[in-house]
What does this fold into?
Amino acid sequence: MTKVKTLADLKKLREDLQEKIRLRESGEHPESLVQVKVAMATCGIASGAKDVMTFFMEELEKRGIDAVVTQTGCMGYCYAEPTVEITLPGQSPLVFGFVNSRKADEIIEKYIKKGELVDGIIPVTYQSINDNQKEG
Amino acid sequence: MDKINLTIDNKPVQVDSGTSILKAAEQVGIKIPTLCYLHLEDLNIENKPGGCRICVVEVQGRRNLAPSCATVCMEGMVVRTNTVRVMNARRTVMELILSDHPSDCLVCAKSGKCDLQKTAQDLGIREVHYKGEQSHYKEDRSPSIIRDMDKCILCRRCEMMCNEFQTVGALSGVNRGFDAVVAPAFEQDLVKSTCTFCGQCVAVCPTGALTEVDHTDNIIRALANPKKTVIVQTAPAVRAALGEEFGMEPGTLVTGKLVTALKQLGFDYVFDTDFAADLTIMEEGTELLTRLTSYLNGNKEVPLPILTSCCPAWVNFFEEYYPEMEDIPSTARSPQQMFGAIAKTYFANKIGVDRKELVVTSIMPCLAKKFECQREEFKTDGNPDVDFSLSTRELAALIKQSNIDFLSLPDSDFDAPMGESTGAAVIFGTTGGVIEAAVRTAYEVYTGKPLQKIDFEELRGMEGIRHATIDFNGLPINIGIAHGLGNARKLLDSIKAGTCNFHAIEIMACPGGCIGGGGQPLHHGQSSVIMARQRAIYQEDANKPIRKSHENPYITKLYEEFLGKPLSEKSHHLLHTHYFNRSKVKVVIPKSKS
Amino acid sequence: MVTQKMNIMVCGGTGCKSSNSELIVTELRRELQENGLADEVQVVQTGCFGFCEKGPVVKILPDNTFYVTVTPEDAHEIIAEHIIKGRKVHRLLFKDPVTEEYINDSKGMNFYKKQLRIALRNCGFINPENIDEAIARDGYAALAKCLTEYTPAEVVDIIKKSGLRGRGGGGFPTGLKWEITAKVKADQKYVICNADEGDPGAFMDRSILEGDPHSVIEAMAINGYCTGSNKGLVYIRAEYPLAIERLKIAINQAHESGLLGKDILGTGFDFDIELRYGAGAFVCGEETALIHSMEGKRGEPTFKPPFPSEEGYLGKPSNVNNVETYANISPIILKGSDWFSSIGTEKSKGTKVFALAGNVNNVGLVEVPMGTTLREVIFEIGGGIRNGKKFKAVQTGGPSGGCLTVKHLDLPIDYDNLIASGSMMGSGGMIVVDEDTCMVSLAKFYLDFTVEESCGKCSPCRIGNKRMSEILETITKGKGTPEDLDRLRNLGEVIKDTSLCGLGQTSPNPVLSTMANFMNEYEAHVIDHKCPAGKCRDLMTYRIEAENCVGCTACARVCPVSAISGERKEVHTIDTSICIKCGACMEKCKFNAVFVS
It folds into this structure.
């Protein structure tokens, strides 16, 4: 166990350790973070959603963006897989289709960072994915 | 000390800071009833668990009623002791206590002297509105003490005496809620506990829960039996207290009336334990000088200090807790047992009565004497040296039952030969007395010179532990004195630790010595009663023509006719004893699992 | 390091653990291993989530999926569906008892919506057996701040200003207590944590110790710094083995990390903590009794003053606070007294944890701001009364508290309001009862608990409570008289007024409050000799309605005392002099022919 000898030690240790539970904390206040939901049903996975999700996770972290990346079920746009829903704090969610790592990079740089829209938005009478998942 | 101003029932009171409401109220003539509270002021004994809740009062600004015994006065406090709320609460609590108490007052040993009965009367209780289940426990009869816990009101006075004052630890609270009761560990009988039978629990019990084993009936039957010769010895402390049972002022000496009463009761010979006390000094004093001389001659193995051994509760205590120190106390028997041994040999022979037909009784301020006289080592062929030991209280009851008007009795003298005694013997009844008596004799025997001053004021007093150095003609003798077994424990621990430089130590178990014994008339929490008895004892000593044990002519005669000299073989056989390991409590430290 | 995708939090509190939650952890880990996901998905065994009604609880983060009544067999589906395919396991989601909707995100659960978790901030969120997770959540940051930035007096001042009051029942201002202990001069002082949680049904202290032991350790050290003590003692019930184990682990880890022991953070401050075990006597939650018990003496209270802050353990000044109180300390230091005092009511600041139980849909631990109404707690968080029954009363404050009724539902909960209504905060027990409850029997139930748990030291509590219980027994047997009610009231008032400690001073509350609010039920028992709720067996009579009886003989065959007679195909009758009112006939009858009145 790391010996904490000074206040500086404790601060350093806390910073290192916070990384470990950042994932959990992001679930506490997702509305204040960039929320990325990757559709990970069979169709999505078949189209490479897993790689896209990993890309988002790693790149958002690398680029210092506080975001919460979660997976969801099928969004119903199987033709456009992999699909990703992005919610910026205080804004309505947008769904992007045919997302690969290049597209993901563009989404991060333009939409997430600057709020500029990029191609590939699926213009739908779209409700948040989970709203659809009520008992039916 | 800071002064505090407050009002109690609209009366302004000024008290020292730290004073309880109860004591402050007394200053302005308000007597708040109490039940569990006990304070023997000069003896530093206090019980205020705040448990009975009889002494509650209303303190302005407080949500609940406050127990006046345990609540300290504060500046500006406004106290009411007799509002409707307080009186209703007090009466309700008393009714609750009575609802779990047998109502057999008419035949209770404590009737008329019972604090519960008196307080209930003072509170005007005429009906108990709350009835229900009552506690039932099996009666516990030891040779000295009867515990009838059905009558226990959980005042915890006995527990405080047993644990804090005596450090005996025989009694403590067990169980909880309605089943709570004061008992020995595992609710065993007292005889299986560490009890020393000092009787201090009985002395402070406000009800009939703790009483002495009553032997008055045995005495009545023995006296009525024409085949028996019945003799009686009375301990020094009895004469300084018995009068209280007949309404006399504490501290009134009733020696002459006592002798007359005993004669009227029909005892064939009325003797004095003081005679045996003088004998004790001869034996114990000689033992002290022998050990001391041996020590001074270079024998460092000799056990010093020597401890007195007159007090049977104290003997029980060190047999229980310090069995490894059994060679330190004097081997001399207590005066009661010396008397019995001489009575059933020398005296029986003198009057030509077989020991089995001679009934030796004793009047003692003590309950441990009842236990002591039935010890196996004090019997010959099963016949005890002392057959029955009665407490001062039992004697008073016996006198009353026999229609003797004690107050109007003339004085009489003790019978010879075992009724003659000295002032040294009388002071056995108080703390410091035994050692003063021993010093009076040892000094003269050791130095060969007569004492210039017989009173050793430096050995007297009421402090729990006292010490003094007596100059034996250039040899300083360090004396220690303790009364109360808790104080004795401190001295014993210092002996064990090797930090004790006393040559001799006197120990008595009860507060003030025998004058505060467990068999004495109840003091009801008034330490002034015990102080008055002490003054009476010293007064009796001062009035005696002979005040040194070795000058008692009958003692001299006894040695000439029968014993030879102190510590002779015969003395050893009749007047000395040996001690046993009675340790019941073993501390087992479990081995740690590692 | 592989980026973590998800965390699966499995409740490891005593409740869920006894429902096999440990095996769920094992199974989840095995499934992840088999699917090569062990690095990406972490399974964390946490402390209590509070939603004990539906344990074992499994929560997936960061998407806040809340699975209830999970079994080890469900592990496979959770991994295969949720983790791998991203599809929630629908059947394991919580179904709201009121709206009957399945809840996808725990943030949408009414049970959690109204809660504000300060004392329980880490319960269900961290692995309590890993100090790293506590440190990551600002564990020991408050201690560090105190030691390096504040003087002891400044810390006391922050606590005083926060308005925090003792959460163990009395509600004594915590900062003031600390100040008194700090001011007394002594060669040795003690910091004592009262973990002798004794109210039946209350388990917030246990949950905090099981879920976030470091919060208590840290706060005790802060108290040590304030009061000038280097010795902490936790008095904990021996019946709390898991809390004891986790506390021991936490103390060891804090030691190894240098956050307990000598020269903490190089500031020269030393602090150590030892455990003392209680044998489960309710009265030992009273601080003087607790101290006697720690000293090896009989667990009995003594008269205060002197307070433990002046003369406590071994006669030395001792600061005694309970677990929940300590759990509030670090957030106050880190976020400031203004933040804390902005929560709650005028005289009761912050939050309070309640153990919600009884005839309510969502049983569990809830932490709400002071001032939340009973209605919000019972009907929103608690999801209302079970089986569509009507709310009748709520007992707050455990056996020492009182019964509150419909008219109190909009009462903002705080110390003073509860006392003014004849109940109390206590340690936060909250037991809801429905219309079928007999209030006389309920009062007797609580009173019998205090009769059992009284130490017996003072006469009013020892004998008075017994007598009250006996009177209630008489009443529920139908033998009571109106005079019994006078006796009951007088006894209750005198016991409150004269008892030595808090136990006796509050023990009549259930009786007095039910008498105040449900006098009609008492009167029905003693005047009409009827139990309106139909619960007092001695006041019931069973009879067979001739119209409905078909003479099937089923009731006669099931009757254990042969009180029912009647020929086959003819109407049966019950001999009420033999009937023991067991109710077996009623249960057996298929024709609704057996009635009770």
Q: What stands out?
A: The first helix of chain C runs from residue 14 to 18.
